[in-house]
Amino acid sequence: MEDYGRFLALLVSALLVGFVSVIFSLVWVFHYREGLSWDGGPREFNWHPVLVITGFVFIQGIAVIVYRLPWTWKCSKLLMKFIHAGLNTIAMILGIVSMVAVFEYHNARNIPNMYSLHSWIGLTAVVFYSLQLFLGFAVFLLPFAPVPLRAALMPIHVYSGLTIFATVIATALMGITEKLIFSLKNPAYSASPPEATFVNCLGLLLVIFGALILWMASRSHWKRPPEENAKVLRPIGGTPEGAEAESTMTGGSNADKPDLRINSEAARKQNLKLDEAGQRSTM
Q1: Are 164 and 128 in contact (CB under 8 A)?
Q2: What is d(CA 188, CA 143) in angstroms, rounded to the nearest whole number?
Q3: By CB distance 3.0 to 4.6 Å, which of 16, 77, 91, 237 could disulfide with 60?
Q4: Mean local confidence (pLDDT), 147-172
Q5: What local confidence, expressed as pLDDT, does residue 241 receive?
Q6: Which H or E element spans position 154?
Q7: Residue 124 is inside which H or E element, if any?
Q8: How far apart are CA 273 and CA 283, in angstroms?
Q9: E strand or H helix that includes residue 25
Q10: What is the pLDDT of residues 210-225, one digit of tens each?
């Protein structure tokens, strides 16, 4: 890997900043906001920032760059797909639970739902994240989609994933600011009490974490290299491109062997080309 030391420094920095952000969210709700519970009160609402920062920000950020970890390049691509999908699934579950906590709290207190820009963008992010995860399973994890379709959709999948990740961080910043404005009365948020300063620092940590993840995910020289020995992808029940040629070679004349070898080699090169196209960014 080119600039391995720089990548490792950025990775350690991102993990440290992300972990500290999760700790900050817990300190916020336990030290300043009464802790956590599931009773329809303010402590149930406190699950929202904790789960969003833990799942939708930190775990999703790790899922974005998991293909870029050089010590995983010896692992099979299928295994890394399962890890990527698993991390995103965990993030989605935590995000949905955080949404349920907010709606139950609002309903218990007769507070209107979905009236703020934060709630609009947040729900939109959850919906698109769910669609992204579903399409990722259907197209890239399950062996049904044809290879040209995967190669065509991969840039869209990558771009939408990075966009959703950036949107989630922006939504989290809006949410913690909104919470401080509504909750801090005496002294008010404008007076910069300790809680306001502490949570503002949490917001800065989220921005730094997002910037580090997006930087690592957007460097082309840090992407996972193509698999040199990748097998030609094929539909379930089918035979690999070039396999029929090899079978024919065993029973055909020697005059046909060069052409069949060329067909098999061409199929292998086409698969490598599609694999490289599929890994153009984070994948």
Answers
A1: yes
A2: 56
A3: 91
A4: 95
A5: 37
A6: helix 147-183
A7: helix 117-135
A8: 14
A9: helix 4-27
A10: 999 999 999 888 888 8
Mapping DSSP to helix (H, G, I), strand (E, B) and coil, where does residue 231 land? coil
Task: Give the phi and the psi of residue 12 in degrees, each rounded to 5.
Answer: -60, -40
Where does residue 116 fall: left (phi above 0), alpha (psi -120 to 50 degrees), or beta otherwise? beta
Cα 61–280–73 angle (5° rounding)? 70
Fill in the DSSP letter of residue 225: P
Show Cβ contacts of residue 196 under 8 Å, excluding neighbours closer than 6 positions.
Answer: 180, 184, 189
CA distances from 214 to 31, 126, 154, 158, 282 (A): 31, 19, 17, 11, 10
Residue type, 249: M
Q: How far is CA 145 from each of CA 60, 150, 161, 214, 229, rounded to the nearest angstrom? A: 25, 7, 20, 28, 21
| CA atoms lying within 13 Å on the CB side of residue 77 | 21
Output the six-digit token pair for 132.
């992204």
What is the CB-side half-sphere exposure of residue 166 using CA atoms within 13 A?
A: 12
Q: Token pair for residue 50?
A: 């904790």
- Could you report the per-residue pLDDT of 47-58, keeping only the tens digit for each? 999 999 999 999
Task: Quote the tokens at residue 251.
Answer: 């029973």
Reduced to 3 states (helix: H, G, I; strand: E, B; else coil), residue 2 is: coil
Tokens found for residue 221: 């020289």
Q: Find out whether 278 and 150 touch, Cβ atoms under 8 Å.
A: yes
Span 78-107, average pLDDT:
95
Contact yes or no for 155/199 (Cβ under 8 A): no
